[in-house]
Amino acid sequence: MRGPARETVKQGRRVRRLAHLLDRWLLPLYALLAVSYLALPVLVMILFSFNDPSGRSNISWRGFSLESWFDPLGQPGLAEAVTTSLAVALFATLAATVLGVLIGLALVRHRFRGRSSINLLIFLPMSTPEIVLGVSLLTLFLASTQYAFVPEGTFFPLGFHTILIAHIMFNISYVVVTMRARLQGFPRHLEEAAMDLGANEWTTFWRVTFPLILPGVMAAALLAFSLSIDDYVITVFTSGQATTFPLYIYGSQQRGIPVQVNVVGTIIFLVAVGMVVLSTLLQRWQRPDPVEAVEVEGART
Amino acid sequence: MRSTFLRPANLAWKAASSYESATDSVPLLILPQPVGTGAKAVDGARSMDERSGDSLAAGGAEPVSAIDVRLVDVTKRFGTQVTAVDRIDLEVTDGEFFSLLGPSGCGKTTTLRMIGGFEQPTSGLIELQGQDVTWLPPYKRNVNTVFQDYALFPHLTIFENVAFGLRRKKTGGAEIRRRAAEMLELVELRGYDGRKPGQISGGQAQRVALARALINRPAVLLLDEPLGALDLKLRKQMQLELKRIQQEVGITFIYVTHDQDEAMTMSDRIAVMHRGRFEQLGRPQDLYERPRTSFVAGFLGVSNLMTGRIDGADGAYAIVRLDASTALRLPREGVSDGASVQLGVRPEKIRLVGEGSATADLNVLSGRVRDASYTGVSTQYLVDIPGGSKMTVYEQNTARAAAAGLRRKGDMVGLAWSPADTFVVQPGRTEPAPSRYQEAPDVRRT
Ligand SMILES: Nc1ncnc2c1ncn2[C@@H]1O[C@H](COP(=O)(O)OP(=O)(O)OP(=O)(O)O)[C@@H](O)[C@H]1O
Ligand SMILES: [Mg+2]
Questions:
Q1: What is the per-residue pLDDT across A144-159, written as a single tens digit (0 to 9) for each?
Q2: Beta-carbon contacts below 8 Å between A and B
């Protein structure tokens, strides 16, 4: 081997060694740091759910105990707050998902008057500071009492229903934005194929369109649910006497946050992680990647 | 029989069939169940009587039963600028393999989509088996489509993909299973029922798409470049297979392609499309041997085109003078004395002869070899002829040709061919034919 060639080989080795070092050590280290930054608060929450609940607050570690886990709602008002939160999140998600998916379909598929302004307006609840939204909703609800055509008690006194209205409102825009992105690349010719094979518009939607956008719909619904269940700012302005879980936590701050709050928080966290894992699995099961496809082919022959 | 369907659309018919105004009558030749436009159907019955002297009488009681697809003066425009399909008339007969051939953007897909129901014509009439379907949605038409990218449903198994059409018709489970198995057998995909479209190859997906369409036993199958995504070898194989299947099931195929070889090998008839219109429509050999326009001559195979003026006649042939010293002969039909014409000859019809060895009954030109390339089967020559034009000649590499020796660059040669192999073409269409809808002049676009 001649000189320059050998030099190249040497240089190549050096580069490879560096790349190896980077792959093997630096990147994992970096990832570990980033992940612990993200995970630390959650870990602390989980850890303190096992704290001995004897003290007034849950700030210092007093020793391991499963007491709160055996009675996670054992605090006055906590059960009602969690139920309210779940109910609000559930109904708000359902309503916002149905409306949002339909709006998304309309915006992507049809050209109509006012389409571009709606496209813009959809972003409004996302880009407006939550506190502004909360205040203006409250103003709206209060102002409605001055008009005769609004039956008394529709919006005021505030309560569960006003929280729901507020949550549906801001959730719609998140659902629309998620769905719009998913629908933009939707293969329209699949719908044409369905119609070609004798399916009318209704059947085409339920047999072809919906199954194909279902992952997107699920993603949008999950997003809406998680936004709804932990919303504090807008809820505080629209809740009246009703108390949701985040409001409960804030309210109990003066008395000292009970350990059960950490338990419920941990449960919510675990459910969320479970859902993400489930949806990933579902998606993988629905759309096998090319490598798997080749394996299947190999296995058959 | 076939030639009766090639009858040129008569103008009165065209004018009457326009959808332009509400008062227009729409002639429907058969009215099994007038669908949609009831009032028009009544009008149609009237004009049917008026036209009884035409093709109606020739065919008897059900004159058009053999016509599966009929387009009458169909135009499709997108916006005001794009005329994708420009006043097309078409009749495709039962069991025919018909191809739409043309360059990219000439309107093939648009034509097919209008037949399938995915696009509505701007004006004109579409009939399937005598029924006016112009405004029917796809799911009410007895046609099925094989899409260019197959459009298989990714969330359904191959079996469910194939069964989709029958499920919509509420066919029983046992029959669906039997017919799906039959179809998968036909396209040689037995045992693939349980897979998803993501788990099969392109050629297999193409066959699934075919099975999924054919299982519905449509009157007409529309295929939009179904082999476009396949490599050459698989393509050739699938061409034969498609042809076999078409003959086996006996369904009318309307096949879109921009590959002239594909169209030639598979079709009973071909329509060559160019800028939204049919340049020429006919059997493959007619299109090849007698191209009527310079576009067809150039698009289907290679042609040598020359210009000259008709100058007298010689028996069955007209004499055409290229310049003062050169005259050729060509079939007399369709040319008038004194007219300036463009004539052509296919490269493989020309034989290279010794220079000056004139043969009385052949057309002969002399020229100088500019380029020769040996391609195995044949040798391709490029010959300069006086007057500045170039001729392409394909000479089979037979013993005879070998004996004459390979011509080299610079050799003087004679080019000889039979006057019967000479054809006359109309100059290329530069302007769209006069139409009710004048397009905006180009200048406005700037
Ligand atoms: N939806 C549409 N809106 C506007 N113009 C269109 C639309 N569909 C087609 N066109 C135009 O109409 C013309 C014909 O298109 P078409 O798809 O029928 O061509 P094609 O012959 O199928 O070409 P290709 O071989 O490339 O598929 C093209 O100029 C195209 O740009
Ligand atoms: Mg096309």
A1: 888 888 888 778 788 8
A2: 73
User: Is B137 a pocket residue for ligand 1 (Cβ < 6 Å)?
Assistant: no
Counting ligands in written order, the one closest to the CA of B88 is: 1
Query: Is the CB of residue A238 less than 8 Å from the CB of residue A134?
Result: yes
Q: What is the Cα–Cα distance from A260 to A195, expressed in whole angstroms? A: 55
B164:A194 CB<8 A: yes
Comparing C-alpha atoms, which of B227, B232, B256 is closest to residue B149? B227
Pocket test for ligand 1, best of B82, B148, B222 (most atoms within 8 A of CB): B82
Peptide bond into A157 cis (omega under 30): yes
- Nearest ligand, CA B101: 1
Closest CA to B120 of B143, B136, B141: B136
Q: What pLDDT score was predicted for residue B322? A: 87
Helix (H) or strand (E) run with residue B75 in it? strand B67-78
User: Would the CB atoms of B168 and A197 count as touching at under 8 Å?
Assistant: yes
Which of A111, A197, A300 should be substituted to probe chain B, the one whose Cβ sees the most B Cβ atoms within 10 Å?
A: A197
Residue B155 forms contact with A (CB below 8 Å): yes
Which chain A residues have any C-beta within 8 angstroms of a chain B C-beta? 187, 189-190, 192-200, 203, 207-208, 211-212, 286-288, 290, 293, 296-297, 300
Name all domains of chain B by residue range, CATH numbers in brackets. 67-142+218-289 (3.40.50.300), 302-425 (2.40.50.100)
> Does ligand 1 lie within 6 Å of residue B58's CB atom?
no
- Using the beta-carbon criterion (under 8 Å), do A187 and B165 form an inter-chain contact? no
Among protein residues, the one with the nearest Cα to ligand 1's atom 11 is: B84
Indicate yes or no: CB of B151 within 8 angstroms of CB of A187. Answer: yes
Q: Are B383 and B393 in contact (CB under 8 A)?
A: yes
Ligand 1 pocket check: which of B108, B260, B273 to mutate, most ligand atoms within 8 Å of Cβ? B108
Whether residue A196 and residue B164 make contact (CB cut-off 8 A), yes or no, is no
- pLDDT for A1 equals 55
State pTM to two decimals: 0.75
B205 HSE (CA, 13 A, CB side):
21
Going along chain A from its start, the domains and CATH numbers come out as: 75-300 (1.10.3720.10)
Q: Which atom of ligand 1 has the smallest separation from the CA of B79? A: 4
What Å distances lie between residue B107 and B86, B259, B413, CA to CA?
Answer: 9, 15, 43
* Closest Cα in chain B, distance from residue A122 (Å): 29
Q: What is the DSSP string of B312-347?
A: EEETTEEEEESSSS-EEEEE-TT--TT-EEEEEE-G
Q: Phi, psi (5° rounding) for residue B145?
A: -125, 140
**How many angstroms separate the CA atoms of B161 and B56, rounded?**
42
- From first to last of its 446 residues, chain B has per-residue pLDDT tens of 333 333 333 333 333 333 333 333 333 333 333 333 333 333 333 333 333 334 333 334 444 448 899 999 999 999 988 999 999 999 999 999 999 999 999 999 999 999 999 999 999 999 999 999 999 999 999 999 999 889 999 999 999 999 999 999 999 999 999 999 999 988 889 889 999 999 999 889 989 999 999 999 999 999 999 888 788 888 888 899 889 889 988 899 999 998 999 999 999 999 999 999 999 999 999 999 999 999 999 899 899 999 888 888 888 889 998 888 888 888 888 788 888 889 999 999 998 887 766 677 889 888 999 998 888 888 899 999 887 788 999 988 887 766 666 788 888 888 999 999 999 998 765 444 433 333 333 333 33
Alpha-carbon distance of B331 to A274, in angstroms, equals 82
**What are the Cα distances from residue A117, in Å, to A109, A121, A126, A175?**
16, 6, 15, 17
Q: Which of B116, B131, B133, B108 is CA-nearest to residue B220?
A: B116
Q: What is the DSSP letter of B383?
A: E
In A, which residues are within 8 Å of B147 by CB distance?
Answer: 189, 192-193
